[in-house]
Design brief:
alpha+beta, four-stranded antiparallel beta sheet, 2 helices
Amino acid sequence: MLARRESPLDLLDREFSRMVNRYWGSGAEVPATLAPYAVDVHEDPDHFYVEAELPGFTKDDVDITLEDGVLTIHAERKEEVKQNGDKGQRQPLHLERRWTRFERSFTLPAAVNESAVRADLNEGLLKITLDKREEVKARKIQIGIGNAAQQSNTPGTKA
């Protein structure tokens, strides 16, 4: 009789599951706090931009606050209880999407105009735009070619 060999990916998956179960207990659930969500911060001459990946979250799941120069993004998605027809509630066998919570805070520079902030959530990408205050925006200074008195005394020019 031939023995069936497992693929290397199956072995890796089984070992990873054993390690997680050993560390977090005997349950098959991976804690939701392990779910990482990436955040990028950019700036241009007029704005600061914060972009956060929040897959599966709706705008009702997300709260954004700006207080004392600190921008906080808080998102929480709670477990859905689903019914399975006449059989009652479904029996979970393996859960990873049960509950997810995300919170990040950023101390903003003094250049931010706290009264001009916009946020959009589209297809799991949260985009926050923060305007810079006018007085801190860079201004272009025009360079002249000297003053009129110097130009009239320059040799080779007609006065």
